[in-house]
Amino acid sequence: xxxxxxxxxxxxxxxxxxxxxxxxxxxxxxxxxxxxxxxxxxxxxxxxxxxxxxxxxxxxxxxxxxxxxxxxxxxxxxxxxxxxxxxxxxxxxxxxxxxxxxxxxxxxxxxxxxxxxxxxxxxxxxxxxxxxxxxxxxxxxxxxxxxxxxxxxxxxxxxxxxxxxxxxxxxxxxxxxxxxxxxxxxxxxxxxxxxxxxxxxxxxxxxxxxxxxxxxxxxxxxxxxxxxxxxxxxxxxxxxxxxxxxxxxxxxxxxxxxxxxxxxxxxxxxxxxxxxxxxxxxxxxxxxxxxxxxxxxxxxxxxxxxxxxxxxxxxxxxxxxxxxxxxxxxxxxxxxxxxxxxxxxxxxxxxxxxxxxx
Length: 358
Prior knowledge:
Shape: elongated
Structural class: alpha+beta
Distance between the termini: 32 Å
Largest sheet: 7 strands, mixed
Number of helices: 9
Strand content: 25-35%
Radius of gyration: 25 Å
Helix content: 10-25%
Number of strands: 22
């Protein structure tokens, strides 16, 4: 099973222009709020109509602007789980589930299928409850069960945990991961949380300001993100303008230093990045070590964030007139002796330097 999407939709001050392919697994659409993730799902489901492009699911064309094909939502065999779950408020759980079987005419088969879903989703005993009488987790299970009763070929999940508190979110994530493994077809999961994507998805498509990057393995997003936008969404917080300074060396312009990368540096490198937990405190000067000044200590629950500025760093060339800062994340023990204003050496291993051409 496969999904191929190449669509464009102009909304005046915003243009959605995405192209990606997803296979028989869970693919995350990862991006900041307002980047076009949910709009992409609605175009695939047929709720919105793109201006141009095509959408093909398992060899069946759902939309093609050139061929003037635009199947209505009920013919696409696509299940869309909205953030609000979109349950019918005046219907019971049983009636909501039965609504997912609109194409089934046999009453006995309907009853049997609904009963099976009630058992699978731990909803037995709630058959006569209305949505207002259910918890957020129970509402989500009803909505997902109703979608699966319609036997979709593709499952679309639009930030399914956005309205839930932390503990309930974790419980439902565990439940949902089991259901997704049972589904067996392509799944697109919209999220702005890298943690959700890392736990639930095998592949990810980064969407930034309406544009999609090619799908990559989730592991690659965290180990070797292909672009600065992807690295930002994966949680990388330290960046500098960069330029090639040798076969395996790169100049970190904002940090006022040259770093060894341990691999060939592309001629067109524009940025470098480094994750907070990859920096370490070094006792003295040396390769890939910068003298810095501690500017702030931020106490987290299980770690300490240490903000430093390079002692020799220049004003940033990127238009930001503030002094460049580097964020370190250390254990509480490592940071216990640090003080604001203290000068120290900070190091980074060559393998932990990320290079970006865009």
